[in-house]
Amino acid sequence: MIHHHLSDEMILAYAAGSLSAGQAMVVACHLDICPACAARVAEAEVIGGALIADVEETAVSDDLFNQILVDVDEAQSFPEPERTGASASGDLSSSSYLDGRYVPRLLANMIGDDFAAVRWRTVGPGIRQFVLPVPSSEGEKVRLLKLSPGFVTPDHSHHGSELTLVLKGSFSDDTGRYRVGDIQDAEEDMHHQPMADTEEDCICLVCTDAPLEFKGVITRLLQPIIGI
Amino acid sequence: MTAGQLSAMLVALGEHHDRGAFRQLFDHFAPRLKSFYLKAGTNPQMAEELVQETFTQIWRKAHLYRPDKAAASTWIFTIARNQRIDRLRSEKSFVYKDEDFFASKLVSDEEQTTEVHRNELVERVSKAMALLPSNQAEIVSMAFYDEATHAEIAQKLSLPLGTVKSRMRLAFGRLRNILSEVEA
Ligand SMILES: [Zn+2]
Ligand SMILES: [Zn+2]
């Protein structure tokens, strides 16, 4: 059961195609298992369609249609293979979701479907990360974070946004408890201290668009090492 | 042409690659899609190339179109958006390449929406867009047409990022209310 969903502005921006690559990736991974948010994206796409329906017309070249016919006739001789059931969008029965972890399709394309096989790098006691090879925009970083049970993230605030999707285990902070499938959109002025709150590791997909700012001297000293 | 007619054309195209239907869809949507791409800052030649690629995709994917899930304009918007991302924002294309969104289970199958409803939604949203406060409408259209991120919109309008986000939220909230009235 998902309790923390995407904000309206994220849904709208995703439907418009205007999110950054990293944010769009985290959003798409949530949509993969959240029919409620997926339905909201479909609503937002109605807005896109309405804008297309209402935009003024610009004349196109006379022979454009004929060129397209040439293209489709060529395409015809190489028919697209029928889709197999491979795309399991929104398939809540997928076993990987039921056993308390969830590897979204987009992510599985990059890392496979086993978190144990990921080449985790230790960034500090109780915290490991894997930076994903996402072609993201400037300043943006997309990574998997793995927090050991009981690990408390250093108290920090955000210069930019931090979008987090829980893939395994859970964490808590002042704003609530986040479990598998839940999303947290920590806005610019938010200040928090997430803690992995069960007996198992907490694995999250996180997109940040600016380095975080930690409170306290020790953590500030650690920051260059942690690199988050 | 009415939204219902456009839907029917798209279905005919999907069922038996009806060239007459394809031509009618082209005549209706191509000049609009060209404007859509021009607004994203492409030059006229590239806009036409994008229209060309989009219609090739429409031809290939029309069999995935379900009139009870989306109006023709909504479905064509998603194809056009993905095409724009492929060409202009390649870093994002790995996210959006799953074009058969509407064929997937994402929109729940139990939903009792009819084709008529879908088309009516688009009309209602069009009318509602015109009634949005201009500062909200501006931000929505910048996101959809200019493909500007929140941060870019904030910069262009010299507004705090939080203001951009809250205006988007307000606009979408209003439009969603209108959508839910129709669906109820
Ligand atoms: Zn959701
Ligand atoms: Zn944070």
TrEMBL record, chain A:
Chain ranges of the Putative zinc-finger domain: 9-38
Residue ranges occupied by any ChrR-like cupin domain in the UniProt entry: 114-208
Source domain of life: Bacteria
Signal peptide extent: none
Identification of the protein by name: Anti-ECFsigma factor, ChrR
Organism, scientific name: Cohaesibacter marisflavi
Lineage per the UniProt record: Bacteria, Pseudomonadati, Pseudomonadota, Alphaproteobacteria, Hyphomicrobiales
From TrEMBL, chain B:
InterPro entries: RNA_pol_sigma-70-like, RNA_pol_sigma-70_dom, RNA_pol_sigma70_r2, RNA_pol_sigma70_r4, RNA_pol_sigma_r2, RNA_pol_sigma_r3/r4-like, WH-like_DNA-bd_sf
CDD domains reported in the protein's UniProt record: Sigma70_r4 (cd06171)
Gene3D superfamilies assigned: 1.10.1740.10, Winged helix-like DNA-binding domain superfamily/Winged helix DNA-binding domain
Domain of life according to the entry: Bacteria
Protein name: RNA polymerase sigma-70 factor, ECF subfamily
Keywords for the protein's UniProt record, in alphabetical order: DNA-binding, Sigma factor, Transcription, Transcription regulation
Swiss-Prot/TrEMBL GO biological process terms: DNA-templated transcription initiation
Source lineage: Bacteria, Pseudomonadati, Pseudomonadota, Alphaproteobacteria, Hyphomicrobiales
Family note: Belongs to the sigma-70 factor family. ECF subfamily.
Organism encoding this protein: Cohaesibacter marisflavi
MF term (GO), any: sigma factor activity
